């Protein structure tokens, strides 16, 4: 299982700061400590950028990593749909992509790591990063191309704030340690292959929404007034609760008992606490519901129809 990401302190390191090699991907069959792999990855990035490997005194890595002949394409995050997240449950988001590489690169080698992750903010100063719990699996379609599948695993209770309900970008990265031990203090970075590719795709995180409806009285005489109440609420990642969504346009809809199609009767707005209330005339037996079209931060939602028997 991957260790959850924290935002990189090293400029531009971004997704590399999330690296943690599980036993199945570790050189020599042993697992590496997260900090050791992060140190090697950050050193590779800094050296590739023409900077000293470390900003503080410590192990003296040597050399500059060479550029891996590897690129990412056809990246799909959540099959192109927004990622909708509630307050508590983990959301496992599918990620698929193609990797094209030189024939001498083995994506499944024990000393090779590769991944696609998402971040928001600028590339050099990310506001947040989301990764998967497990490394992706790659299946070769030729000597130089593979199809890969992975996940982004979102934990809203400790990874998100409401500011994260926005657009995110995908970044891909790969490291080939070439039998070197990332835990070593004298790793030769000139023998480490390194590739990083930004802005591979975009996705959007949205706050899960709920919508209720209640039409009364039930039953009701034909031609009499029905009062229809409800509430539109959405997840808050700041406090782990649901709060009313104020000032939103919501449609009151009706379908006859014998029909499968809803017709819009009117459009009203939620009040300051997300509540809805309006009236309509009862005509025939049928179902009433509220319908919300959604916003950039909040997905569309329909209330379950409330049946009213008209006498």
Walk me through the structure.
This protein has 311 residues and is mainly beta. The chain has two domains: 14-207, Immunoglobulin-like, CATH 2.60.40.10; 209-308, Immunoglobulin-like (Sandwich), CATH 2.60.40.730. The protein is built from two helices and 20 strands. The chain has helices at 34-48, 156-159; strands spanning 66-67, 70-77, 83-85, 91-101, 112-121, 126-130, 137-142, 145-154, 167-176, 193-197, 202-207, 209-216, 225-236, 241-244, 249-256, 263-269, 275-281, 286-292, 301-302, 306-308. Strands 1, 3, 5, 6, 9, 10 and 11 form a seven-stranded mixed sheet that branches. A hairpin with a 4-residue loop joins β13 (225-236) and β14 (241-244). It is elongated. Keywords: Signal. Residues 1-26 form the signal peptide.
What is the strand and helix layout of this fold?
Elements: H1 34-48, E1 66-67, E2 70-77, E3 83-85, E4 91-101, E5 112-121, E6 126-130, E7 137-142, E8 145-154, H2 156-159, E9 167-176, E10 193-197, E11 202-207, E12 209-216, E13 225-236, E14 241-244, E15 249-256, E16 263-269, E17 275-281, E18 286-292, E19 301-302, E20 306-308
Parallel strand pairs: 1-10, 3-11
Antiparallel strand pairs: 2-4, 4-8, 5-6, 5-9, 7-8, 9-10, 9-11, 12-13, 13-14, 13-17, 15-16, 15-18, 18-19, 18-20
């Amino acid at each position: 299982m991957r260790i959850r990401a924290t935002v990189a302190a090293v400029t531009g390191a971004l997704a590399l700061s999330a690296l943690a090699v599980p036993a199945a991907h570790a050189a020599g069959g042993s697992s590496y400590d997260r900090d050791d792999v992060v140190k090697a990855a950050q050193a590779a990035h800094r050296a590739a950028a023409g900077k000293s490997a470390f900003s503080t005194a410590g192990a003296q890595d040597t050399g500059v990593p060479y550029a891996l002949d590897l690129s990412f394409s056809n990246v799909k995050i959540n099959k192109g749909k927004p990622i909708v997240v509630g307050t508590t449950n983990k959301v496992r988001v599918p990620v698929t992509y193609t990797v094209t590489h030189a024939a001498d690169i083995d994506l499944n080698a024990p000393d090779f790591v590769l991944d696609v992750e998402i971040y928001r903010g600028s590339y050099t100063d990310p506001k947040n990063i989301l990764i998967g719990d497990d490394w992706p699996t790659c299946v070769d379609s030729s000597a130089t191309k593979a199809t890969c599948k992975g996940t982004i695993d979102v934990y809203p209770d400790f990874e998100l704030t409401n500011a994260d309900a926005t657009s995110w970008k995908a970044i891909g990265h790969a490291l080939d340690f070439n039998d070197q031990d990332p835990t070593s203090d004298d790793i030769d970075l000139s023998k480490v292959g390194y590739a990083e590719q930004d802005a591979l795709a975009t996705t959007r995180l949205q706050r899960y929404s709920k919508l209720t409806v209640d039409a009364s009285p039930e039953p009701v005489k034909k031609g009499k007034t029905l009062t229809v109440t409800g509430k539109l609420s959405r997840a808050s990642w700041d406090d782990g609760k649901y709060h009313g969504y104020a000032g939103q346009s919501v449609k009151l809809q009706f379908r006859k008992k014998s029909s499968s199609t809803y017709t819009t009767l009117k459009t009203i707005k939620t009040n300051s606490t997300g509540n809805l209330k309006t009236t309509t005339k009862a005509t025939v037996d049928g179902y009433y519901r509220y319908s919300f079209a959604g916003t950039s931060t909040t997905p569309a939602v329909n209330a379950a129809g409330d049946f009213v028997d008209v006498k």
